[in-house]
Amino acid sequence: MKLDELETENETGAKTKKEKRSKEKKERTPMDKAKKKKIIKRSILGGIAVIIVLFIAINSIAAKNMAAVVYTTEVTRQDIEQSLNTSGTVQTEESKTYFSQVESKIGHIDVATGDTVKKGDVLFTYDEASLADEKQLAQLKKQSSEGGYKSSINKNSKYISELGEANINLEVLHQQIEDSENYVNQLNKKITDKQDAIAYEGTLLQISLMEWSEKPDSEEYMELQKQIQYNAYEQQHNKDIETWQREVSKYQEMIADYKAYESEMKAQKSSSESAALDGGSKEQLEANRQMESINADETIAAIEAVENGVVAEFDGVVTAVSVVEGGAYPAGTQLLTLESTEQVKVGVSVSKYDLEKIAVGQEAEVTVAGNTYKGVVSKIDGMATTNASGAAVVGAEIKIENPDSGIFLGVEAKVSVNTAFSENTLAVPIEVINSDKDGDFIYAVENGTLAKKRVVTGISSDSYCEILEGLNEGMQIVSNVTVDMEEGMAVTAVPQD
Q1: Phi then psi for 117, rounded to 5 degrees?
Q2: Which of 269, 322, 383, 414 is within CB 3.0–4.6 Å of 367 for a Cys-Cys bond?
Q3: H-helix or E-strand containing 110?
Q4: Nearest residue to 360 (alpha-carbon basis) of 344, 334, 346, 379
Q5: Neighbours of 251 (CB within 10 A)
Q6: For residue 396, what are the contacts with CB-CB under 8 A and spacing of at least 6?
Q7: Residue closest to 73 by CA, chosen among 397, 477, 488
Q8: What span, in angstroms and rounded, lies between the C-alpha atoms of 170 and 172?
Q9: What residues pair up with 430 in beta bridges, in sequence order?
Q10: Whole-model pTM?
């Protein structure tokens, strides 16, 4: 069909439809109102159904093409303080058990178990009359000991003098005898050496004479005979030898006198030692005197120290009272125990996982009965023990540096130890860190896709963890990680404050 014919046919059709609608319009009659409402209602419901179907279809198509929405947070720099939080029991670092220092009755007890006291408060008193009797008895014992010692010393004094004289003289005589005998030995050696030299010279002359024996009339032979005769005389009458021999005789007489006097001094020494106290007896006498004097002085001092009552040496709590008023207790009896509230600590248990974090000297915060105190790690045990659950733990002590009246011994205390601090470091919320068999990782959003970033973590607080490697400041990291996330998938990042 040609184009002009097609256009003519379309115009004719349109004209026919227009005439038909005009005719139908003229033939219509007014519609019933109830029927009209019913038709309108059906039209509205049908339209709504169509809209719902179209909405579901559109959303289904969009869901297949739209990227997953993830919430992100930014990698920032901040200060991170790592803490070890635990609890323990408040304990004292100083305890004083009071023992009875005197043999006396108890007068009045001013405290009971559980009482808190201040330094200088009276804990209990002794009976005054009983104390006075004990003090007088101690003084009399000391006087008796001193008198007996002085009497023994006076009796022994003359023997000590004689003994001293004998000892001094014997020492001098011993030296004189030794020196004289050494000198005599030197003289005898000189005599022997001289005699040997003269005899040796005579032997040489005899040998020479034998060599000249074939010429008995020669001058040499005659001279040798004269020398031999002179040598023989020298051997018997040498002046040096005779002088030395006289000196030897003189010193031997002196030595005999020294030895005689030595025997006399030995007899005097023996007599003095038998009459005087020997060394052991004297030491025993002196030791007994000193012990009795010390015991008496200590008893007197102990009595004087408690005449006004026994007082607390520090602020603390009375944890035991073992005596009653009017009771008489021997010295050494345990009477009362006081535990300090000035020197206190908290004993805690540290697991093997936290052991590498804690160290002596670290600052801590201790909470006791709602009050907060400064603390410091003062001790870490060198061995582990087993707790009630069977786990190995290591004991540690936190010293409370500023205790006050709010401290109660034996109660539970909360402890927060500042184990590490990092300033202005890269940090992310703890919950964004994930782990697998290869280590820690974080999902980050890069150019609309999900990127898996391996990280090296450092210290962590309750909320944030330090990042040492793997991230840069300002990066957007995923905070709502789900199991269906995979590296490389398209995502739409929604930053969160």
Answers
A1: -130, 160
A2: 414
A3: none
A4: 379
A5: 16
A6: 347, 348, 349, 350, 358, 377, 379, 380, 381
A7: 477
A8: 5
A9: none
A10: 0.50
